[in-house]
Hints:
By secondary structure, the protein is of the alpha/beta class. Helix content is about 45%, strand content about 15%. The protein contains 13 helices and 14 strands.
Amino acid sequence: MHAWPASEVPALPGKGRDLQIHDTATGGPVTLDPGPVARIYVCGITPYDATHMGHAATYNAFDLVQRVWLDTKRQVHYVQNVTDVDDPLLERAIRDGHDWTELAERETALFREDMTALRMLPPQHYIGAVEAIPGIVPLVERLRDAGAAYELDGDVYFSVEADPHFGGVSHYDTEVMKALSAERGGDPDRPGKKNPLDPMLWMAAREGEPSWDGGSLGPGRPGWHIECVAIALDHLGMGFDVQGGGSDLAFPHHEMGASHAQALTGEYPFARSYVHAGMVALNGEKMSKSKGNLVFVSTLRRDGVDPAAIRLALLSHHYRSDWEWTDAVLEEARQRLGRWRAAVSRPDGPSADAVVEEIRDALANDLDAPAALAAVDRWAALQHSDGGTDEGAPGLLSRAVDALLGVAL
């Protein structure tokens, strides 16, 4: 599966800062100090409704992570999956009378278009669950043969007790885990499971549903968590720098994925840090496919909204915060974009050297994008009021906003 084209990232004078970011697993800030190649895995979409503003906010956060790393002169090895077969996708296809593969392909193509428009840097490896199945099956067989998994009516479940570190990502208690498992695709009430929290690794073939050769597992399809584990281990290995996604993935997805990998390898941790973006709401409720209260990037683009304004609207909120999408948020972003473009269009201006360092400092401090925007706002206000004589300032400021914030002026 191919990703989307990369926009050029301008080179800036000097060097960026190492990123200090909030780690869900430790509950506090950690300073990321990758080697020459920083490794990041961000969980991708289930392609039946793409791309809503919750998606966009999440991928914007991890785009900033990449840009901070690139500014430190590191390379970035970024991997993202596409869950192109799963219950919600199949259910939507049946509801709308579509072939599930065509639905997945159409929505994935739309997602690529939106990511390109928003200038999100693409992953080096963009892998669908279906194409990953040949690598998933051996992992499930290994877990079963090692006693870390068991069969139940043809399905294969992972035993959470096989990983002594289980619970170390989310730190939720058992009752909260059970509730979230039921809410987010698990089946804690299924009779016969050794532990209500045990997640499915391999679902035996169901009548009328797609299935694949599972070797000794029999025909079926993979569970959600093992999909990402197989892709991450194949392309990044254990101990990669950042496992990322929305805050609703901390449990069960990232918790279970970590336990799968740790039980498979006997190594710890699966990822050195777990970073989660906040949720976006609309009309007082979390924006979600199940609720149908979605604002789509593609709809805004068709209505003539500049993608740079959409990106500025996302950047105006701290990535970890929960916030609400409103017309006022978008209008404020449009006005900001207009002020910035007018400011950099002049032939000279106030020195921008200090502003570039302010942006770097803000982003290195847990991706504080609102503080970075405020630094550019101050420069633009000074430019509009007093101007300046530095002929290189508008160009430098424009390149910095592009390189570090992903906004083309």
